[in-house]
Structure formats: structure tokens, C-alpha cells
Amino acid sequence: MKAGRKNLRRARVEGAAVTLAEGESIMRVLALRGSNVIEVMDGKGVKSLALFPAKFQKSFWIKNGSFVAVDASGRDQALESGSKIACVVSQVLFHDQVRALEKSNEWPAIFKSTPNEGSDAGTQGQTAQVDEEPNSDEDDDDLPPLEENTNRNRPLELYSDSDSGSDS
């Protein structure tokens, strides 16, 4: 095992309790823009671009929906000077660290919605769509009926004699 990986793992275990320094805030990754630039959203719902330093490139992988600690102390000055990149990622938050921060008072209220609430809303929307589907049979859009799949073997009917006997 390389020393870099070992130290990252050790830092992750020791750093389960994350404290934010002055000027740092928690942001959610919205999109990866390429060239070490990511789009993030802060606790107020403001979107901005952040720089993902090269020292994190091969040791941390982030995706949409990940949480990062961002140094946004020079954010206003950067935006005033015309720079599109407003902040720098200082730390990638792991799952354990996110759970610990959610329980503390440092977690932004905009991120407190749980995935379970969203999935409930999604299932309600799906049931509404299922209810609407039978109504769509009325307007066929002049499509021919579906033909039987001849590639599928049908099981033998075991009691075909009793069915024919009841008809006669």
C-alpha cells in the first residue's frame, strides 16, 4: 500500500468530526465542469464555480451530489474582479463526516431534506402516471396491434383433452 493512500485513510478515520475554519462553508456539488472546475451550491442556494485543487485529483473522487468544504473567504472580491471561479475546495466530505455534520448545527438548512422524502414524492408521481395510462388506450394513434412473439416457446398444455371434452 502506498503511503498516500494510507495517510488518506488515517485522516478520514481521525477526521470524522469536521470543524469548519473561518471563511469555510459546506457546499453541494452540482456539476463537474472539467479542468478542475466544479459547480457548487451554498447553504443560501447561490450557485458558483469552485476550483478543485490538483493535489486532490487522484486521491479524491467527487460526483454530483457530493458535499465539500469550500474556502469562500475571497468570494466577493473574486466576483467583483470578474473572475468566474469564486472559491477553492479545501476538503472533500466523506459519508461519515456528512452524517456527523447533519446532526450538528453547522449543517445548512437547505441540505437537510432527506432522500426518503424525495423518493416518496417520486412514487406518488409514478402512481399518478400509472392511473393515466389506461386512458391512453383510447387514442391508439392509428398503430397496428402488437403481434405475438414467435421466438418464445409456449409451455405444453397438459389438460387440453379435458378442455375439449367440456366443449362437446
UniProtKB/TrEMBL annotation:
<comment type="similarity">
    <text>Belongs to the EIF1AD family.</text>
</comment>
<dbReference type="GO" id="GO:0005634">
    <property type="term" value="C:nucleus"/>
</dbReference>
<dbReference type="InterPro" id="IPR039294">
    <property type="entry name" value="EIF1AD"/>
</dbReference>
<dbReference type="GO" id="GO:0003723">
    <property type="term" value="F:RNA binding"/>
</dbReference>
<dbReference type="InterPro" id="IPR006196">
    <property type="entry name" value="RNA-binding_domain_S1_IF1"/>
</dbReference>
<feature type="compositionally biased region" description="Acidic residues">
    <location>
        <begin position="130"/>
        <end position="145"/>
    </location>
</feature>
<feature type="compositionally biased region" description="Polar residues">
    <location>
        <begin position="113"/>
        <end position="129"/>
    </location>
</feature>
<feature type="domain" description="S1-like">
    <location>
        <begin position="23"/>
        <end position="76"/>
    </location>
</feature>
<dbReference type="InterPro" id="IPR001253">
    <property type="entry name" value="TIF_eIF-1A"/>
</dbReference>
<feature type="region of interest" description="Disordered">
    <location>
        <begin position="105"/>
        <end position="168"/>
    </location>
</feature>
<dbReference type="InterPro" id="IPR012340">
    <property type="entry name" value="NA-bd_OB-fold"/>
</dbReference>
<keyword id="KW-0694">RNA-binding</keyword>
<dbReference type="Pfam" id="PF01176">
    <property type="entry name" value="eIF-1a"/>
</dbReference>
<dbReference type="GO" id="GO:0003743">
    <property type="term" value="F:translation initiation factor activity"/>
</dbReference>
<protein>
    <recommendedName>
        <fullName>S1-like domain-containing protein</fullName>
    </recommendedName>
</protein>
